[in-house]
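Just curious. Protein, please.
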Amino acid sequence: MGTPGFAVPTLIALIESEHDVVSVVTKPDTPKGRGRRVIPPPIKTLAIDHNIPVLQPEKIKTEEFHNELKVYNPDIICVAAYGKILPKNILGLPPNGCINVHGSLLPKYRGAAPVNWAIIRGEEITGITTMMMDEGMDTGDILLQREVKIEVEDDAESLSEKLSIVGAELLIETIRLQTQGMLPRIPQDHSKATYAPMLKKEDGMIDWRKSSEDINNLIRGTLPWPGAYTTIYGKNLKLHQAKISSGKGNPGEVMVSESGTLRVATGDGALDIREIQMEGAKKLPIQAFLTGRKIPEGTILGK
């Protein structure tokens, strides 16, 4: 069970293993882009390429879907970023349980967006947890964990890609230990739990009173959606990449706007904006952006 690109390495690893993938469950196809073209989830495309039956239920808490899944008589259900909480009747269906590949070191960052929030909150280390699923939100017993360093150049896309590869490897190791009867199960310490809820559009709004590091983490952590944004002349201005700089000014003030440099004051210093996108336009390197559009020094962003 999986939906986005994060789940692809896990399915590839299962296909290439000695195990038999009897079915793939994913979310329904969704319309995307300005043309609203219906796009299948990446997992569906991969499954079809390998002649694996695909199930795309609108709702999973139905007797109809339970019976449909039951036909495949699964020994184990592997879950990677599927996006829905499994009901009790599905959790109890496979004799070896439902194992989830989660993009954090549980019990930290339970929820839908652990990769994003780890960056936004300035973590230096994250990782992958394989977990025996229960009816809660990422509350089941920890099976295996592996740490992954968050590099300063990582954004949510690059970190998610790294974690997805580690997750695939860890799942295969988890199943191997389970078949040998050597798989550990460690109950989570719920008192240490933190949460990573699904991102909302407003989560990307920049508060220039915050530190340069906090704002840069927000830019890195909200890619590709919702993106970190501010406003100028009544329009949204999305920031795709920045670098911590120095200087002093009123938060949000454009301090330098010349020669390919757009420096904006923060609560404790400044940021140099490297990639930028005006509402309704395409993303541009800052030099190209400033060539076509002037932002006078002294302009206050976010007003």
Q: What stands out?
A: DSSP finds eight helices and 14 strands in the chain. The CA atoms of residues 222 and 228 lie 6 Å apart. The mean pLDDT is 96. The two ends are 44 Å apart (CA to CA).
